[in-house]
Amino acid sequence: MADLTTNFAGIRSPNPFWLASGPPTNCGEQVMRAFDAGWGGAVWKTIGEPIVNVSSRYSSIDWNGQRMMGLNNIELITDRPVETNLREITEVKKRYPKHAVIASLMVESKREAWHEIVKRCEDAGVDGLELNFGCPHGMSERGMGSAVGQVPDYSCMITEWVKEAARTPVLVKLTPNITDIRAVARAAKRGGADGLSAINTINSITGIDLDTFTPRPNVGGNSSHGGYCGPAVKPIALHLVQQIASDPDVGLPISGIGGVGGWRDAAEFMLLGCGTVQVCTAAMHYGYRIVEDMIDGLSNWMDEKGFRTIGDFRGLTLPKIMEWKDLDLNYKIVARIHEDKCICCDLCYIACWDGAHQCIHLNGHAKPADVEAGSKARIAVTPIAKLDSGRPVAQNDRLPHVDEAECVGCNLCWLVCPVPGCITMEQIDTGLPKQSWAQRVGQ
Amino acid sequence: MSAVPNGNLVRFPELHPALDEPSALMEANRCLFCFDAPCTAACPTHIDVPRFIKKIASGNLKGSAFTILDANILGLSCSRVCPVDVLCEGACVMLRYNKKPIEIGRLQRYAMDWFYSGSRSLTVEVQAAAPTGSSVACVGGGPASMACAAELRRRGFEVTIFDNRPLPGGLNTYGVAEYKLRAMDAQREVDLLRGMGVNFGQAEVGSEVSLEGLEREFSFIFLGVGLGAMERLDIPGEDLAGVVDALRFIERYKTGPELSVCGRVAVIGGGNTAIDAANAASRLGATEVHLFYRRTEREMPAFRSEYDHSKVEGVHFHWLAQPLEILALDGRAAGVRFAVMQLGAPEGGGRRAVTPNGTSFEFPCDMVIPALGQSRLTGLMAARGVDVQDGSIRIDRPTGRTSNPQYYAGGDCVNGGREVVDAVADGKRAAVAISEVSRG
What we know:
The structure holds two protein chains of two kinds. Chain A has helices spanning 28-37, 82-95, 111-124, 146-149, 152-165, 181-191, 234-245, 263-271, 281-286, 291-305, 347-355, 368-377, 385-388, 412-416, 437-442; strands at 6-8, 11-13, 17-19, 41-47, 58-63, 66-73, 100-105, 128-132, 170-173, 195-198, 202-204, 226-229, 254-257, 274-279, 332-337, 360-361, 401-402, 423-428. By secondary structure, chain A is of the alpha/beta class. Chain A has two domains: 6-317, Aldolase class I (TIM Barrel), CATH 3.20.20; 324-372 and 397-442, Alpha-Beta Plaits, CATH 3.30.70. In chain A, strands 3-4-7-8-9-10-13-14 form an eight-stranded parallel beta barrel, surrounded by eight helices. In chain A, strands 5-6-12-11 form a four-stranded antiparallel β-sheet, with no helix packed on it. In chain A, helix 6 links the parallel strand 9 (170-173) and strand 10 (195-198). The two termini of chain A are 51 Å apart. The model of chain A has no long low-confidence stretch (mean pLDDT 95). Chain B is of the alpha/beta class. Chain B is built from 17 helices and 14 strands. In chain B, strands 3-2-1-4-14 form a five-stranded parallel β-sheet, with helices on both faces. In chain B, a hairpin with a 2-residue loop joins strand 8 (321-329) and strand 9. Chain B starts with 7 loop residues before the first helix and ends with a helix.
């Protein structure tokens, strides 16, 4: 049976699933319900001088009928007094001593202000601190959030201030809205951080109402750029996590954030080196209950793979990510279409012709326009048994075929095929030894 | 329009209610957007189905509606009456994948309802004047002529449709079951054609207006005359009160005064029209509706979906029963005597022959509705040099041209009685051919 207990940079929790700082961790009543549902930890909604929010605050991207592929928010940090948050933290820790409560912090860039908030939070009983250097909207205009996170020297300096006062582990939450995330990760390390959280939300404008020309979310006919998150950002988050995890000058534990909605996402972040993951959008979409399958699914997968602890597989994929110049130029795969599974939607055909290398064919080598013209020229009638008896049934001539000699192995047909297992990409033995671009030009 | 009774809205709620916006979007998004889609190939008018569906998904309903109308001017009626499970939806690749086919018919209706709704008053653009100044007469006011006329108007021809009934639209107006297509919806398509500049004339061609006259007045004549009256049973008692053939019955309840049915009804025949009549009798108040067919379920020509629907309507089916005589009581039909049949060897067409087994039975009822199919054409056209073979006008299939080059033809009078969409396809092909011939 898999052991999910976690010690992340010195912060212990019953499992690696933490709620990220945000609306689901706004108050003690919520965090306690989240712990009851199974969450291992919670990063409290960012504490600082209480702000005033606008209405509305969220907008999202729907895709092909699915809601909230990506979510955007322009909500600021907590709007509740510091003492209220701290009193509730104390209460939560009293009732849930084994769960991780981490205070996300954001105050003005003054040493005394940081010293004071750190001391007050630790006195309230938090297990760790997360410095919010990532919030991309609103607070950044006041010199906080990503305004700090985008300047490595500021990040280093404030981390140092915090470390002067802190007795609990200090995590720095990184913004993706920067050219090279490693620069800030290294600065946090220099400042003495114990761990990193990545990524914060991505600057975004989700959309515009085409009747009123108002951007979303609508605040009295106007809007402002917001922070983008949810399933759509996961690939970006995975890349940035890998960048930090692979950097020899960083070497800190990473709490992975960005589009985690299920155990598969969590496993992927962990394979790229994360020790815990943080979740916000999925919990906002479906509620705290989603954690049950995260725990169950990850445990079952670990059992199946023979991993006892998260440490057994953390970072396993990192050595497989390398620079393009080191990839094997002589590795060759081609597409195979399994006719017994093909439903003849011919999406692979048009994708290959218009979006790839013209090596999937119908009816000989006809071009798409000729194929369509042929169908439109055919006379079709409603089959009427009484009138049509004895008429031959039309042959299916829609089966696509791959010209393997021309196939470059790009994967596009396999990606667009709606039927699992219908197209497989299969390795062809080229008879050539491994050779990378670096090796080839080095010769 | 005033001739169309509204009581039918209550008695005949629609078989397939309209999709609401979220359902339409969800269904439109489910469509895979196949290349050279089989649904499009299966549609006799080759509506670009994935294209109009993806336009629904993108919120471009105007574009969706015109994608449909460009291919099929009767997109509204087809969306309601097409037997989609043997056409577009039957060809949907989802079926090969053990998934429900995309609800193409209902999505088409969604786009068409948008097009025809209230204040929108959209019209189909037509060309100002024909390059040749040619004019065309379309004889018969049903779907074939309407499609031919619309396509010709688009290409700038002057077109007049002649029909002998008060309202144009042919079987769409008078013959399609009310729960599939309401007469008032059929009239919306007539109004669309009027808006495109199609002229409508009420006249019986052959008596009030002669074909010779039309030949002199018009450059081309399109024959979309459909089939004749329903075939007679040719048994004693057929002319008794209480006996009404299926098409007259449907026409009466659709457009005539409020009609109600009481008591037991016997419907004779196994086709789609027999089913429509049986369902209608049930909805109009019959206590029991019994359908008698001389072969069995397997040989029944009605579409499977129609048969299944009818069972839900509560119609009782009886197989291997051929009527011998309609029994009278006080001058009214009071029952039918049927011969019991038995199945024999397959005939030329593959269907099994039936022969009487020597026994018979009587079925007491209050109304008899024969539905044996419509009669074929007689040699009426021969005098104009238009060849008729086995009751159908002979045409060159891709162009619809008859043996007399001034005459084109399409629809039931050519294909022996198929669907509205087949008539539309025939009419459109003929219009394209006429246009090409005129251009020289």
